[in-house]
Amino acid sequence: xxxxxxxxxxxxxxxxxxxxxxxxxxxxxxxxxxxxxxxxxxxxxxxxxxxxxxxxxxxxxxxxxxxxxxxxxxxxxxxxxxxxxxxxxxxxxxxxxxxxxxxxxxxxxxxxxxxxxxxxxxxxxxxxxxxxxxxxxxxxxxxxxxxxxxxxxxxxxxxxxxxxxxxxxxxxxxxxxxxxxxxxxxxxxxxxxxxxxxxxxxxxxxxxxxxxxxxxxxxxxxxxxxxxxxxxxxxxxxxxxxxxxxxxxxxxxxxxxxxxxxxxxxxxxxxxxxxxxxxxxxx
Length: 283
Fold this sequence. Notes:
This protein is mostly helical. The protein is 69% helix and 0% strand. It has helices at residues 2-6, 16-43, 64-71, 74-105, 111-120, 130-139, 146-170, 174-182, 187-198, 200-216, 219-224, 233-238, 248-269, 273-277. The protein is flat.
């Protein structure tokens, strides 16, 4: 009995399907990470070895990560992108939350037409509207400012936020708000004390998609601004590509810096994204 009790338990091998799925997942992860590894290697190459055929340089030189801050407008461009992305996200939430709440809770005449119109606006691409946007903002004397990019990015992300928030708020039982109003809250109080806390995954989804979209936007930043220290980070990185020479180590170092805020944001709130995207899919 004692000898049998001391015998190690036989280990169960994972099913072949699990091993296959895990292997494919790791292979896909490595495939997606390879471009970032290439960017890191290129950024760490000495300037004299940028055109060498060898994958790895003879030695690594990280000076590009420090010089890119002093030799270019990267610092100001990074600040501009943070202001643009944060401002556009805040503006989208301020406008989308009341619109989504009203469409989710009130069955008004033309509700379906309104939601269809919101969806149709997603078909318009910023590239196709640049001439009209340029003339409009020129009339308003807003060109070459951070404000113009905040407004433009918010406008192009508003429809998606309304759809996500409307679906999520619609999945929250209205009886919870009615119970809060019986307890003495008005509709605004019920919204902020009951609905919004329950709708947090949907709000987070709208926040992260709006922030990433505004952070990665390039065409409007290139068209609506022309002063280097007023342009977003995407345009600032593009400015490092000259007509006769390209400082690839600077380009890749700045590109790696541009990835960090998005990774930090997504890692912080990613647990809410899946539930927000599936909002309204189950009734």
